[in-house]
Amino acid sequence: xxxxxxxxxxxxxxxxxxxxxxxxxxxxxxxxxxxxxxxxxxxxxxxxxxxxxxxxxxxxxxxxxxxxxxxxxxxxxxxxxxxxxxxxxxxxxxxxxxxxxxxxxx
Length: 106
Hints:
It is built from five helices and five strands.
């Protein structure tokens, strides 16, 4: 499984209820713009919360603003045994521009 997934692929899988969205931005960013159904765990909290709050068997798509933090978290999750973790390429910014224009760009 690739480390990245495109926003369009995420849309298809979301419509089929086939993934868990993990938003690793800060709370103020999440309040500014977020994807429906996303679970917020800020990047700094992931190491202490991942094993309690996430299922290693789930397909987890990690999102952030532009895709850098989400790629770092994806790599860490993979090392921890979350083999189906992927980072959404371009982050919520790409989601807003390419998939859902109702999500604010910031």
